[in-house]
């Protein structure tokens, strides 16, 4: 999916790529020009001398939409949580670490248009670029399909993380922390492998193994794959030295 920025324009090929992205997320979108703008980084538009044709304005809008959706969801879903607990949860969810982790899970980076400089500097994996792009994408969904659809998308992505954090009483994003640590130290990304599923469909437990390269590091269990991966990442981080949690 990764291509040089010069290969991209809103051609039939680009539309097919955007359609693939939407299909993977089960999202309908009417305005493909708007979607393309949401996934256009400023480094790309600057190279084309079209500085206004990037996702910065949509990022500005999406940031506010995302905050409102998360705030509304937390307020209505957790009536027994204090203002302090809700604020802490919201801060975690809309943080750069959390947003970039979500962006990686939906493979957003593969569809972002980047300039040659950012492309050569691994821009598709940069937290700031990924976080900004997902905010712009939320803004684009809001403009294209309305607040209800944007809410459906955001809650669908983040609800599992919110519930997991409240259940554990811990708002650290261990997957993002581990990703950053391993990439910095070993220049590769950790990987997660589903080992087995235990129990009936209505009460299933997922068992996940975590690897760095070919080396097994830890495992984790949870009621979902995401929860199991988060627990495996937590175990791995706490076993590693020279990491400030």
TrEMBL record:
Q: Where is the active site?
A: 63, 135
Q: Name one GO cellular component term.
A: cytoplasm
Q: Which GO terms describe its molecular function?
A: double-stranded RNA binding; identical protein binding; metal ion binding; ribonuclease III activity; rRNA binding
Where in the numbering of this chain does the RNase III domain appear? 18-146
Q: Which GO terms describe its biological process?
A: mRNA processing; regulation of gene expression; rRNA processing; tRNA processing
Origin, by domain of life?
Answer: Bacteria
State its location(s): Cytoplasm
Q: Which reaction does it catalyse?
A: Endonucleolytic cleavage to 5'-phosphomonoester
For activity, the cofactor(s) needed are: Mg(2+)
Q: Does the keyword Cytoplasm apply?
A: yes
Q: Name one Pfam family in it.
A: Ribonucleas_3_3
Report keywords, A-Z. Answer: Cytoplasm, Endonuclease, Hydrolase, Magnesium, Metal-binding, mRNA processing, Nuclease, RNA-binding, rRNA processing, rRNA-binding, tRNA processing
Predominantly, its location class is: cytoplasm
What residues does the DRBM domain cover? 173-242
Residues binding Mg(2+), per UniProt: 59, 132, 135
Q: Which InterPro entries match?
A: dsRBD_dom, RNase_III, RNase_III_dom, RNase_III_sf
Q: What is its EC number?
A: 3.1.26.3
Kindly report, in one word, the top-level EC class recorded for this enzyme.
hydrolase
Assembly description: Homodimer.
Family under the similarity heading = Belongs to the ribonuclease III family.
According to its UniProt entry, what is the function of this protein? Answer: Digests double-stranded RNA. Involved in the processing of primary rRNA transcript to yield the immediate precursors to the large and small rRNAs (23S and 16S). Processes some mRNAs, and tRNAs when they are encoded in the rRNA operon. Processes pre-crRNA and tracrRNA of type II CRISPR loci if present in the organism.
Q: What is this protein called?
A: Ribonuclease 3
Lineage, highest ranks first: Bacteria, Pseudomonadati, Spirochaetota, Spirochaetia, Spirochaetales
């Amino acid at each position: 999916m990764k291509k040089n920025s010069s290969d991209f324009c809103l051609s039939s090929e680009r539309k097919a790529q955007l359609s693939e992205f939407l299909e993977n997320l089960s999202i309908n979108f009417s305005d493909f020009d708007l979607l393309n703008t949401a996934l256009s980084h400023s480094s790309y538009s600057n190279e084309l001398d079209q500085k206004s044709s990037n996702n910065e304005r949509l990022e500005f809008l999406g940031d506010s939409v995302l905050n409102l959706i998360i705030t509304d969801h937390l307020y209505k879903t957790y009536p027994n949580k204090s203002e302090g607990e809700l604020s802490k949860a919201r801060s975690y969810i809309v943080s750069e670490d959390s947003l970039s982790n979500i962006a990686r899970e939906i493979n957003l980076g593969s569809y972002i248009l980047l300039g040659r400089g950012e492309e050569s500097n691994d821009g598709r994996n940069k937290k700031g670029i990924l976080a900004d792009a997902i905010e712009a994408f939320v803004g684009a969904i809001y403009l294209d399909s309305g607040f209800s659809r944007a809410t459906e998308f955001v809650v669908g992505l983040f609800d599992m993380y919110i519930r997991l954090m409240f259940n554990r009483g811990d708002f650290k994003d261990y997957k993002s922390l581990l990703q950053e640590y391993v990439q910095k130290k070993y220049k590769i990304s950790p990987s997660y492998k589903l080992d087995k599923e235990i129990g009936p469909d209505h009460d299933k437990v997922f068992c996940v193994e975590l690897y760095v390269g070919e080396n097994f590091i830890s495992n984790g269990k949870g009621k979902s794959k995401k929860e199991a991966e988060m627990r495996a990442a937590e175990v791995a981080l706490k076993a590693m030295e020279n990491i400030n949690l």
